[in-house]
Amino acid sequence: MAETSRFHHRSTLDYKRLIPSFLTLIWTLGFFLIIIWQRTAVDRILTFRRWSSPPTRPIPKLRPVVFNLTDFGAVGDGVTVNTRAFERAVSEIEKRGGGQLNVQPGVWLTAPFDLTSHMTLFLAENAVILGIDDEKYWPLMPPLPSYGYGREHRGPRYGSLIHGQNLKDVIITGHNGTINGQGQTWWKKYRKKLLKHTRGPLVQIMWSRDIQISDITLRDSPFWTLHPYDCQNVTIRNITILAPLFDAPNTDGIDPDSCEDMVIEDCYISVGDDGIAIKSGWDQYGIAYGRPSTNIRIRNVVVRSMISAGVSIGSEMSGGVSNISVENLLVWNSKRAIRIKTSPGRGGQVRHITYRNLTLNNVRVGVVIKTDYNEHPDEGYDPKALPIIEDISFIGIRGQGVRIPVRIYGSSEIPVRNVTFQDMSVGITYKKKRIFQCAYVQGRVIGRIFPAPCENLDQYDEVGRLVKQSTSHNNVDTDYEV
């Protein structure tokens, strides 16, 4: 009887010892299953949307003259190269003075092609325009005049998969059809230094006006995804932009560059660099070109960026960036939410910028202003060309899981002036002495905010009365790098 009891006791102990190991095994298995699920979630969602959705919706007639891509001999099998079909279709629309090109369901492999004025490119549900991933099919173009060189190499640059310049009245829309740049090959060659020229964007519209891009998905761009350059009156609405969060270098989502009067709204962006990056040229070339990005409104946007930031200004901002409004922005599981980046040599200015109603969820750094982003096209820049950063407002910031809510790093050469914080409450991941970091910053806090602001900022109550004035705007109040 005693022997039986001892045996039972030993069995119970062995069983209890096995429980932690068993639970560890289950947790590890679950962890890897979650990773695998996350990696394939987007594809599965798109596949579900593709195969479980109702029958394909009819394509609306948006122009008096309408063509289908198949009218020009295209085959949507993912193998046949349809470049000539696209070119013939665009040429016919140009002859007619405008028209609509319908890309029907299917996978339409193509090399880069150009658009024309008064044209609508309509991507039907389950339609995919697929870019050839061999660079020999991509034409070379001169460097952008406000950059001087290709962004990655001197000399010419590769064009974009879908391109247009000197156009008016262009619409790219659809029933959430996809433009896919097959960037994986480009990213691999870039990392191995096998490319001789700067990679091209997925969609680039230059020197054009009255542009509308809506209701499509853009994915896996070789370089920047959507690049309006020196354009006016641009509306970007209800688009999805996707690229891997890692190992997809420089796959910015939307890069307004020297653009005026633009709206970006109701978009979802998850990419391997900045979600949205407002630019206006690079050092002496941007200063000489002299075209600012101005009057841009960004609203109702969800962004994820593990490499850079949700919404950035710069670092190429030499033509100036002004009158920018960012509101109703959610940045989740990202490295940074908001970033302004510049350096000596840029010149230009960043002013009259308003951020309103920002939500930060698991973001390493909430707000960053950086003035030493020293990356230059060549040695010809003027180090005395100092940018101006002023009149920046942050109103209504909420969040949780944020490591450093604010880091504004001005310098004696480039101080940050007239910054305002109001209505801020951000939950931090852990406590450290300096989590609201400042250097060479002048500005104010209105009302109570959390976490407590740095000593550089004047403090006012809710009705605008001065409560505490800063003794020095040049305090360097940082204790670690980010």
TrEMBL record:
Pfam families, alphabetized: Glyco_hydro_28
List where the protein spans the membrane.
18-37
Highest taxon of the source?
A: Eukaryota
Q: Which UniProt keywords apply?
A: Glycosidase, Hydrolase, Membrane, Transmembrane, Transmembrane helix
Family matches, as SUPFAM superfamilies: Pectin lyase-like
The cross-references to InterPro entries, in alphabetical order and at most eight, read: GH28_Enzymes (IPR051801), Glyco_hydro_28 (IPR000743), PbH1 (IPR006626), Pectin_lyas_fold (IPR012334), Pectin_lyase_fold/virulence (IPR011050)
Which terms does the record give in the GO molecular function aspect? Answer: hydrolase activity, hydrolyzing O-glycosyl compounds
Say which family it is in: Belongs to the glycosyl hydrolase 28 family.
Q: What is this protein called?
A: Polygalacturonase
